[in-house]
Each structure stands twice: as structure tokens, then as C-alpha cells.
Amino acid sequence: MITFMNESATPRSRPALYQSSRGQVVFPRQRSLAQRLLRWLAVLACLGAVAGTIAVSVVLVEIGRTPREWAPYLQRRAIGHRPVIRTAVDLTARWLLHADRLGVTEPFPLPASLGAAVDRSGVAPAGRLRLVTSLQELAQAAGDAKPGDVIQLQPGQYRFGGYSIKFNQPGTETAPITVRAPVLGDVVIEADGTETFHVGGPFWHFENLVMRGVCGDHSYCEHAIHVVGGATGVVIRNNRFQDFNAQVKINGEDGRFPDHGVIEGNTFTDTAPRVTGNPITPIDLVAASFWRIEGNIIADFVRGADGQATYGAFAKGGGEGAVMQRNLVVCEWQLRGVPGEHVGLSLGGGGTDDYATRDLGHSGFEQVGGVIRDNLIVGCDDAGIYLNRAARSRVDHNTLLDTAGIDAQFVESSATVTANIVDGAVRVRDGAAMSALDNDTTFLLGLFAGWHPQRGAFSNPAVLDLTWRKQPDRLAETDPRPDLCGHPRGADSTPGAFDDFARCLAGP
């Protein structure tokens, strides 16, 4: 029974009584205990939320995956679950992509001066000039070519089908054999076959050609140019390649390897996702050493079927000394929003079967002493630069925008990573070793909150307007090599691929 105090009690000493929501009378002391309990519960809830957030953050950092990588992974894991779970996962994935991907709302042109701009003069090199007007004549001229020959296709459109044209006769370092068009765009070769040119002889040069794959089944248009075996000193310059799986393929044959090649000033694109499970990599370099891949535009290498990751270019298979420099790589340009894993440039690629490597897999290395420098890599839903079992690598002065960043994996990988602008994370996984200096990077957890400070340095990265809005601090360097735009770096250059992007638009 509840007893009330008498009416003579003073107002200060009289305890107020309250009616609870259930009709019970509650003493002030009971209410005070309830309030304290609620406050402690709130504090504990906050502490639990903080602890949970810290735990999740630690896990995210430990795993090292960016939001753009988490989104498709979560969606795959949700397949087959209840609709409410799939809906929640879809909403989460949308946020992750919104936070991490660069919103491109309109098409943008690629600066033509960065690729296919080596020779517009139409002047043929010195040597015996042999004019051909059909692919049959081209095959005949290639079959009896001599060092120094210049085989020039007359302007027109050529249709190729059937077996590849062989280029097995040897040129020499001082007298290469050249296959060319008078001017880029004069000659268009439409190819409906597995490979168009098969190069087995040394010192062949290919320039000013437009080569398009037109296979109804994408699995058949594999290579525009396939370089094999003893084909050392091959130069592929100032061409346009379109709609092949691996436009230029290089690999060993019969224990020989086509070393010391050059791929310079070309444009590689596809007009539609490649509907095939075959490897998709515009420049596919396996086991050969000392190739220079420079000044190319590589764009829209996406897969429209189930399969492994696609790459703009890789060097793998146990070779050494590959140099990838001053290239513009746009994983998704016109072909945006296609699911898949699209990687910019790689030393090591996705790995190589032992039988196809230079040393039959004995060393365990995919690439040794490779260099990736002065490249602009944009719009990749996976790593912009990936090092897979790549020893003594150098990654220097690259600009990566809207990619998952730089990723070094496995104990065989070691890298010096300097002066890069990375809109993304720099990650070291599975025992890889990295020395990083003077890089402008993003903290991984910041990406989950939509924090991308590197994008703010440029006027409008969504349309590739990369003139400076806020120039980064300059570095005390004296390296005289040209930047992406072809201009020598000053004594105090900026990090990233270029000092002034406006120069890239004007040409070297």
C-alpha cells in the first residue's frame, strides 16, 4: 500500500509524484534511477557503435579493398538470398559506387596529340619501295622481302579473311623491313580471322595502318599483329587498332623470345564489349624482354561475357625490363557501366602458366625490373596499376584518377613507388614489399565517405579537363625526361604524369 505525506509538508520537501504510462505511481527516486539507466544505456550504445565502427574500419583497412571493389562482390554474394537482403545489398552497392566512382555525365574526347601522332608527313623511309594494291600482293612481298624493303599499301579498304599473313623474312637493325600506309587513315584493313599479321622474323616495322576486327563471333578476332619467337626488334608505330581481343600479342616460340620491341604512338579501342571468355588485353606481352610501350592511347577494353579481368597492357611470363611510359589509358571511355574487373597497366597481369614463361616457372617472377612511369590512367573499376610477382619494379610520376589505385601483391613483388598522384589507395598485400615516397594518395577509409581530394586539384576530371585548379606542391627533382605531354620536367616538377596538361592538348 502507498502512503502519502501529510499536507503540512513544505513544497521543497514534498516529493512530487508522477503517473506512469501504465497507471502506476512512480516516486522521484525511481524516475531518477530510470533516467540514469537510460543515459548509461545510451552511452553504452554509442560506445558499442564506436567500437563497431572501429572494428569494421580495421577490417576494411586489413582487407584493403576499395568501395568500387566491394560493390560487385557484395552483389554477387547476395544472389539467391531473400529479396529484402538483395534490396539492402543493392542500396549499399549503389552508395559504394556513388562514393568512389567519378560521375561522368557526358562523353569527352581523348586528346589526339597523346597517341597516333608520331608521323603525319607521309614520307617513306629510305629503301627499295614496293607498292602493293591487295593483301595477296602484300603476302607475296612479305615472303620475298629483303632488308631495307619498304612495302607500301596503296590507299584503300582491304578485306582480310582466312590464314594470317606471314612476315618471317629477316630484316636487320640498320635495314629493317617496313610495312606501311602513306599516311595514317589512307589504308584500312578489315579482318575476319583469328590473327591478321603473324611476325616471326626480326626487325619488321609497321606504321600508319588502320586495322579493324569485323568477326561476328568475337572469339575469332584475336590479334591484329602477333609477334613470336625470333622476331626481335619489331616496331609498331602510329597505327589504329580496333575490335580485337589482344590487338598486339607478343610471346615466345620454340624456345626463342622476341625481345627489344617498340609499341609507340598507337590508338587501341573497341566499339563494343567483347563477348568472349578469351583474354582481353590490347597489348599482351608474355615472356619477351626489354619492350618499350610508349605514347599510346588505350581505351574501352571491357568484357561482355563471363571471364577474367581485362587489362590495358601487361608484361608477364618471366620477362624483364618492360617500360610503359607516357600512355593514356581509359579503361571505360565510351563503354561505361559494363560489369567486370578492368585494370589499367600491369607488371605480371593475371599470372602465366609455367609452360608459357621464359624460364618454365622456375624463378616464380612474372616480370623483373619493369617500369611504369608518366602515364595517365583513368576510369578503371579495379586497380590503375597492378604488380603481380613483379620484382624490382619502378612506379614513378603517374596520375591515376577514378581507379582503385596501385596494388602490389605476393612476396615476389617489390617496388619503388614515387611522385604519383593516386585518386585511390596504395596497397601492399600477401607479402609484397614497397618503398613509397612523395606520393599524393587517398586514405582508404576516406573513399567510403566519398573523399577524393586529388580530384579537386583539377578543373573538371569528369570530362578529362585536367588543367590545374590547385597545383600540388612541387618536388625537388632534376630528371630531364619528358612528361606525358612530351615536355622536359623542370628542376622542380609536380608529382603525377604532367606539369601542365594544357601542353598535352597542344602536342609535344
Polypeptide structure, described:
With about 500 residues, this protein is α/β, with parallel strands linked by helices. The chain folds into two domains: about 80 residues, no CATH class; about 400 residues, Single-stranded right-handed beta-helix, Pectin lyase-like (Pectate Lyase C-like, 3 Solenoid), CATH 2.160.20.10. Helix content is about 15%, strand content about 30%. It has six helices and 41 strands. The protein has a twelve-stranded parallel beta sheet with strand order 3-4-7-10-13-16-19-23-27-31-34-37, covered by helices on one side. A ten-stranded parallel beta sheet has the order 5-8-11-14-17-20-24-28-32-35, with no helix packed on it. The protein has a ten-stranded parallel beta sheet with strand order 6-9-12-15-18-21-25-29-33-36. A hairpin with a 5-residue loop joins strand 1 and strand 2. Helix 2 packs antiparallel against helix 3.
List keywords for this structure.
disordered N terminus; ten-stranded parallel sheet; globular; 2 domains; alpha/beta; single chain; 508 residues; Pectate Lyase C-like; twelve-stranded parallel sheet; 6 helices
**How much of the sequence is in beta strands?**
25-35%
Looking at how many chains there are and whether they match, the oligomeric state comes to single chain
Please identify the top-level CATH class of the largest domain.
Mainly Beta
Please report the total strand number as a whole number. 41
End-to-end distance: 97 Å
The rough form would be described as globular
CATH superfamily of the largest domain: Single-stranded right-handed beta-helix, Pectin lyase-like
Low-pLDDT runs: 1-27
**Structural class of the secondary elements?**
alpha/beta
> What count of helical segments does DSSP give?
6
Could you please say which CATH topology of the largest domain applies here?
Pectate Lyase C-like
* Number of domain modules: 2
Helix content: 10-25%
Provide the gyration radius in Å.
30 Å
The CATH architecture of the largest domain comes to: 3 Solenoid
How can the largest sheet be summarized?
12 strands, parallel
